[in-house]
Amino acid sequence: MFPSQWSTRPYLVQVLLEQDIFTFGMAFELVLGQGYIWMVHRTPGSDKWELEMRSYRLWQMLVESIRDQGLNPLEVLGWKKTGSLLVGRTTEELDMLKRRVKQLSEAGLQAECLYSSDLLLEEPELAVGEDGGAAFVPDDCQFDAQHTASFIEKANRHFASKGRYAEFYNDPVKCLLRSGSSREVEGVQTSKNTLYSKAIVVAAGSWSGSLMHDLLRDSDILLDVPVKPRKGHLLVLENVMPLKLNHGLMEMGYVDHQTVTQLETISASEPHDCGQDLSVSMTATLDAMGNLVLGSSRQFVGFSSEVDESIINHIWTRAGEFFPKLQDLPLSHFSKGRKVRIGLRPYMFDGKPIIGLVPGLPNVFLATGHEGEGLTLALGTAEMVADMVLGNPGTIDQAPFAVHGRCC
């Protein structure tokens, strides 16, 4: 199934409106993220589990559809079935990993617990000590986020000639258009165009709250979308020959790193009070080009997108605690082959995205607040929104993501 196949549903037409070209895909953190489609750190039975599993299946279906057309998913999407390892270094963390593997297995995923000696066979460069281990999900995969966003955009453009798809870059929405009698929303006014529509989906990532505030300025509808930007750094190094990785990895701290809002430590072992709720947890993988991608940081600093070298140094130091070979090389050694990615994750205080109808506006929908799960949840979110717009019964429970009660 291609994402654009949702356009083939009766009466569904897509119009992409963006403030600028760069923001395409950033609402779901497609462009700047690591590209993980991982289930190893998910929690069966949680409010997000159905959406996570549905999206996971849709990504698998997309890969299969590409193969069925005689194309190579690695070339088209930068897709790799790496498997994922959630790594712990203490007996307490190993116990938690065992429980997680049991939960994932009971939920129908292939998962196993690797003890220190077995883990060393899978990842010889990784150091977790005698008490460590990992949860391993072999079917987890990763994509090149930029390739994937470009592929979806290109696939959608096939519908342009049929009047089913259009793009308006560098043309931000200025206001909603309301009918004179019913006051229902019938379209939007942009900087350059007047566009009429049966439904409007606001998916502006970290900017969704301010955009909705502006759009409802002259309305009697009270809506507060509490999405905040949560800044992240990723370090990309080209040709790191000494280090070989066979899987995607993240440390146990990443699970808390995603959900805890008030963090006073830079890592499990290194206190660091920066006044910005900063956290750094080790994630590591090799992308489709063989580059080493290290992460990741999270902090609340508004909409700043400047590189903070101190955070890059923390990421490097933290990675070295798990991969001792990196300690032999100063980060300055990679000055010519180094890139830093900055992204603003749309953070929601309860850890769940907002996906649903805006109360009082029967044809305006929100899809935001995915934070670091944007790529993973993208296809499930798209399917959910399409079903809502068309009035179809959903494939999963939509209630946990409703706007009402969380933004009103």
From TrEMBL:
One of its GO terms (cellular component) is cytoplasm. Keywords: Oxidoreductase. Signal peptide: none annotated. Residues 41-388 form the FAD dependent oxidoreductase domain. InterPro entries: FAD-dep_OxRdtase, FAD/NAD-bd_sf. One of its GO terms (molecular function) is oxidoreductase activity. It comes from the Eukaryota. It holds the Pfam family DAO. Required for the assembly of the mitochondrial membrane respiratory chain NADH dehydrogenase (Complex I). Involved in mid-late stages of complex I assembly. PANTHER family: FAD-DEPENDENT OXIDOREDUCTASE DOMAIN-CONTAINING PROTEIN 1, SARCOSINE DEHYDROGENASE-RELATED. This is FAD-dependent oxidoreductase domain-containing protein 1.
